[in-house]
Amino acid sequence: MNNQNHAVTIEPWDEYNQELLANVHPPTWKNPTPAEEYDLVVIGAGTAGLVTAKGAAGLGIGLKVAMIEKSLMGGDCLNVGCVPSKCLIRSSRVVADMREALPYGIQPPEHIAIDFAAVMARMRQVRTKISPVDSAAGAQKAGVDVFLVKLDLRVRILLPLAGKISSLRRRLLPLVRVLPNLRLLVSKKLVI
Fold first, then answer.
1. Residue among 60, 59, 56, 52 nearest 39 (CA)
2. Which residues pair with 171 in a beta bridge?
3. Residue 94 and residue 122 in contact, taking contact as beta carbons nearer than 8 Å
4. What is the spatial distance between Cα 32 and Cα 5, in angstroms, rounded to a whole number?
5. Is the C-alpha dihedral spanning 71, 75, 76, 78 positive or negative?
6. CB 65 within 8 A of CB 56
7. pLDDT value at position 5?
8. pLDDT, mean of residues 91-106
C-alpha cells in the first residue's frame, strides 16, 4: 500500500492558502495503516462526509470509521462554495449599505472604491480561520482513519431502481488499494 499523500495545490499561494492546505490536505500527511475491518467507510470529506464520519466515530460504541478524500477536506462548501460565496455576498452588502445610508442620516460617499483583491484576501482569511473544523487532524482526533488518496479508477455498479437498471459510477480504486478487505454493501431500496 502506498502510504504517501498526493500533492494538491491551490492558488494564490499566499499565507492564507498555505495554512488552509496545512489543515485540509496537509502535504506531510501519512495515511494510517488500514484496520482489518471498518464499520463505516465514507467517500468524500465534504460537509456530509465529515458529519457522517465524525458523528459515527463519536457515538462512543466503538465503531471503526474510515474516510477517503482525494482533494481538500471540507469539500465544496468550505473551499469553493458556501464559505467563499458568503464572504463575497457580505462584501457586496457593505457596498449596498453604504449606497443606501442616506435614510439613516448618513451621507453616502460619492465614490465607493472596491478593492477586489482585498475582498478575495478576506475570503481566504475567513476560510482559513474556519478550516480547522474540517481538518484532517480534526477528523483523526475524532477517531476517523483519514486517507488522502487520489481516486483514479471508475467502477460501474448496477442498481435496480424503480423497476429499471441504473448505473452509478463510483471511484473505488483507493478502497481496493487502501482497504483490501472491504466488502461493498448496496441497498436495493436506494432512493436517488
1. 56
2. 154
3. no
4. 11
5. negative
6. yes
7. 62
8. 96
Q: How far apart are CA 46 and CA 76, in angstroms?
A: 7
Q: Which three cell numbers stand for residue 82?
A: 458556501
Per residue in 32-84, pLDDT tens?
Answer: 988 877 888 888 899 999 999 999 999 888 888 989 898 999 999 999 999 99
- Residue type at position 36: E
Rounded to whole angstroms, the Cα distance separating 86 from 89 reads 5
What pLDDT sits at residue 174?
42
pTM of the model: 0.74
Give the SS3 label for residue 152. Answer: coil
Among 172, 141, 149, residue whose Cα is nearest residue 29: 149
List of E strands, the chain: 40-43, 65-69, 144-148, 154-161, 164-171
Question: Cβ distance 102 to 42 under 8 Å?
Answer: no
Which one has a higher pLDDT value, 149 or 174?
A: 149
Query: Is 90 a residue whose pLDDT tops 50?
Result: yes
Cα distances from 161 to residues 23, 110, 141, 150, 158, in angstroms, run 39, 60, 38, 30, 9
Distance CA 41, CA 91 (A): 39
Cα angle 145-51-143, degrees, rounded to a multiple of 5: 30
What sign has the CA pseudo-torsion 46, 150, 27, 144? positive
The three cell numbers locating residue 92: 457586496
